[in-house]
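Task 17 of the worksheet. Students: predict the tertiary structure of the chain below and write it out as structure tokens. Keep your answer in the requested format; marks are given for formatting as well as content.
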Amino acid sequence: MGSAAHHGRPAAGDLEPPERLVRTVTAWEGEAGREWLARLPGLVADRLDRWGLAVERVVAAGGQISMILLVRTEDGEPAVLKVGMVNRETEKEHAALAHWDGRGAVRLLRAEPAEGAMLLERLRADVSLRSLAEPKAMLEAEGVLQRLWVPVVDGHPFRTVAEATGELAALLRERRSAPFAADAGAVIDEALAAQAELAGSADEVESVLLHGDYHHGNVLAGERMPWLAIDPKPLAGERAFDLAWLARDRLSTLAAQPGSRATARRRIAKLADALEVDAGRLRGWSVFRAVEAGVWYLSVGGRDDGELLLEFASWL
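Model answer:
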């Protein structure tokens, strides 16, 4: 670590992962997560050194499975260093960002995929679409998505929606019999039926590059463009799949107001209409994604989040 100190950069000891990151990684990833957290300060220090970066600060809110640092490059340009856990969902993040090349998404400056390290253009981390009123946020979100949905060519590196949801459906089937899912049998069965039908007919619908985790919190204010997407978990597949997260955005606010069921259904109809996707397919993917995520939350002890997602699925 001598060289890091020599360049006036923090040593690994100063690069402790933020509390929120430690909490989520420990709860979600178990032993593998704890091992990664132990290695993380060293990974970050090494990357700062190799890429000649000076740290301004660690972003405490940061990512749920990644450490985010505001840095300056050797030329003094502001940038962001992101070092995240590499898993099935995140392993192609750099490839998607490189494919978009700044069009609708944050620009990738450098990457070391094996370590989950990326140097990204700096956006306004504290200003996401959540800062806008919901109708305006939805309008902006739709505009960004239309730039992201580019055709994928043969031989692309991304998993398909059918493959990814097939794996999730298998896990959901296993979890159906667990004590924590005791009350959710009917809605789980509906979600599994929807996934089987939608994945089975995937060839009939145009396939594009999808963001995979698209919601208001993952779209930040930028300098070159008003709004840019971050944090993709990319897949190749139909547009309706990407809209399923958007359909349940700001869910706690939605649940707290009267007529939530009618509002949720109206939202699906409006999104389908605005982005020219089949409303039935959007409804099906919204049910599957909400149930799958809800049961996953129940499995890691997040009862409130889990029950809210299952309730949303039941409204549709």
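Marker's comment: The beta strands are 54-58, 66-72, 78-84, 108-112, 117-121, 124-128, 208-210, 219-221, 227-229, 235-237. The chain has two domains: 2-122, 128-315.
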